[in-house]
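In this supplementary section we document a worked example of the pipeline. Step one takes a protein sequence of length 225 as its only input; no multiple sequence alignment statistics are reported here. Step two produces a three-dimensional model, which step three serialises into structure tokens for compact storage. The input and output of this example are shown verbatim.
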Amino acid sequence: MRHLPLPLALTARLSPVAVLAVAGWALTSGPFAATPATEHQPDQETATQPSAAASSSTDASTDTSTTYATAPAPCAGVPKATVTSLVPGAKTAGKEIPSTDAKLRRTCSWNALKGYDYRWLDVSYEISDTDSAAQKEYDQRISEKSGGGDVPGVGDSAYSVVNLTTEAKQQTREGVVIARVNNALVMVTYNGSDFETKKAPATDEINKGAIKAAKAAVATLQDGA
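The serialised model returned by step three reads:
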């Protein structure tokens, strides 16, 4: 598999604190820099514990399957209605993040502050050389995000996890869904904060929102094939 560095712009992506600065507030640092709390609780109705079958890998020496040759346009991966419901006030066109190789990895972001509520959504597509290479990458990604569970009916396999972070008394809750479809990975990050109450949205809201976006992004990938 061709390993690529993540898009440089993602390392400096907009945080809720940056939004606060624009609005005239001030905090010492952003909630996205905080250390995750021990939440790790996906929605039990939509995510179950990972199965052994989901993490099994095919022998890379014999696998030459290449269903997807290029990454699809990520900003078209989620319907406008879904963007509006998950990120109120965001421009539905989204903003594509520059990539070191747009053929193999593409990412789109949506973010908005409406009143005191902040939401951020990322959708990424990553293409591997083979199905087994994608499976290996999938296994590695979910091993780094313990505490979540499988999401049935999304691609060949999918995994969801939710974390809570707190910085300067401001909570942020973030959900991540990673799905594999043949030799492609679909990755969704969805998070939110309330700057009036300092609280984060409920786990169920964030988890279901991330899964909803992931289902749409996977469907877009499969339709394009």
